[in-house]
Write a structure and sequence with these properties.
96 residues, alpha+beta, four-stranded antiparallel sheet, 3 helices, 31% helix, globular
């Protein structure tokens, strides 16, 4: 199973937050980044499939996404500064 980072590209991420919480049903398969900056999710499928599953894309042509714009990127490595529990979540999920 892959790990993805989902980043909203609009100021209000409430609809994205709701969609991730509803569609990535296991709380252990999602990690909310601080200050509504996005999510880390565990999902079996491609970036396109994850985007359609969450509802960012996949609407009929001409129909806007109710969630708004976001980008989904696969995570294969990581480095930086952040909360300890985020690093632990990433390490654990990438090892599964």
């Amino acid at each position: 199973m892959a790990i993805y980072i989902v980043i909203p590209l609009i100021p209000n991420s409430a609809a994205l937050n709701t969609a991730v919480e509803e569609r990535i049903s296991l709380p252990s398969d999602r990690y909310k980044l601080q200050s509504d900056r996005g999510w880390l999710i565990k999902y079996e499928g491609t970036t396109i499939e994850a985007s359609n599953h969450i509802g960012i894309t996949g609407q009929p042509q001409g129909v806007s996404s109710p969630i708004g714009s976001a980008i989904i990127v696969p995570v294969s490595g990581y480095y930086g500064r952040g909360p300890t529990d985020m690093w632990e979540w990433l390490k654990t999920k990438l090892e599964q």
